[in-house]
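In this supplementary section we document a worked example of the pipeline. Step one takes a protein sequence of length 359 as its only input; no multiple sequence alignment statistics are reported here. Step two produces a three-dimensional model, which step three serialises into structure tokens for compact storage. The input and output of this example are shown verbatim.
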Amino acid sequence: MKRALVLAPLLLWACGSPSPAAPSVAAPPAPAPVAVTAAGEGDQRMADLKTCALDSGEKIEGCKVGFRTFGKLDAKRSNVVLFPTWFTGTTKQLVELVPNKLVDTSKYYLVLVDALGNGVSSSPSASATQPRLRFPKITIHDMVESQRRLLKEALGVEKLHAVVGISMGGMQAYEWAVAHPDDVGRIVPIAGTPQLSSQDLLLWNAELHILDGDATYAKGEYQGRPKMRAVQDVHWMMLSTAGHRNAETSRDAFPAWLEKIESDTTFDWNDWHRQLEAMIAHDVARAHGGKLDEAAKATKAKALVVVAEHDQMVNPASSKAFAAAKGAKLLVLEGHCGHLAPVCESERLRKEVRAFLDE
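The serialised model returned by step three reads:
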């Protein structure tokens, strides 16, 4: 099991029955004023956006966005499905989960995109001129704007068939629908939220405060990849439910399991810090006085809202309210896996998402 990702156990999806592989075809050439690295289907690519203006008024210098593509772009460039990464996730993990599983790449041109701050796209750990916490604060909206520029300026794509995302990826899907209502045909936020609840804010602020208060973190000036045991403990405690953890990890196996999660230093801590701040600031209703129903009604995209009923990491209440206000489809995963419900109920989720994309 991968340990550093919010939804790393979703890699178990790759063990399911594989669908026939999509043909390895390159997308048709598109106007590309933005420099893009050449690559084959599924390979890591980078788009050089030069400078990215941020909500804070600051800028990311040498702004780059990582992405991978699968399938064939149709003549009208109308079959694009964008799939952003979750908190601490990269497109390398999404490769095992999405193509020909959640998204049929014989029909759709799938673009997996690395969110700002994930260590692949511009991030504290990947910047030569703005390293560590000298890298400016980012928002979920900033992530979306960088993706919009990637699509328009590098791939020649003006409109999206859908945006699908899990956890923080779901937050980006909501942001797409609210910020660019004419550019998105459908959204499928999975275990995400349009507006953090007080419980969500408590969790993410707790992780942020643990980092900031840890002497080892050294205000972001740590050396190497030190262990941050308390951050991992809190993170994994909230990732599933007590019943799920007790069933998955016996008392006898617990010491070894705890050592594994606490020893994980895969994801850079300053990247973790900046993505935490982005989630804490997330609220798609900010331009509507915090009124979520008004923000939902202002969107035009069809929506399949997927929530985990017993999610302790991303409370489902705001997503349910968004779906109700919009009259959107709501899929409730009712098992006791918490935020890992998309893993435990992967087959049901797969069928529902694929059917919705084909409507």
